[in-house]
Amino acid sequence: MRDPDCIFCKIVAGELPAEMVYQDEQVSAFRDIHPKAPIHILIVPNRHIPSTSELSLEDDALAGRLLTVVPGIVEAEGIAQRGYRLIANAGSDGRQEVFHLHIHLLGGQPMRHSLG
Fold first, then answer.
1. Residues with catalytic annotation?
2. What per-residue confidence (pLDDT) applies to 112?
């Protein structure tokens, strides 16, 4: 299912430009347009799911796929050995800005201790 007003749904559908680094039938990964690190990639399900709070037991395989694409992406980006951070914000108090489930992959520099 797709939300016609969702920016990430439009990116996944190819209606808005983005620098895709990975895409398959379940998930897409593209560079964040406002990066917080030298490497800042967003990994999203191709199907519209507002946040992690909306995942159900039927989404087990999809939730796993969001993580199992990470090793290939970090290897291609050259940060597999040095390390990286994964963050999933949920809801307004969690600082989620786009209400389409996404995981931030940050790397290319030492990460600060604080997430704030």
1. 102
2. 80
User: The whole model's pTM is what?
Assistant: 0.94
Residue 2 lies in a domain: no
Residue 71 CB partners (closer than 8 Å, separation 6+): 80
CB contact at 8 A, 89 and 32: no
Name the domain count of the chain.
1
Tell me the residue type at 49. Answer: I
The runs of H, that is alpha helices, within 15-112 are 60-68, 70-77
Instruction: Average pLDDT across each block of 10 residues of the chain; the chain has 116 residues. List them in order.
Output: 91 97 98 96 97 96 98 98 95 93 96 67
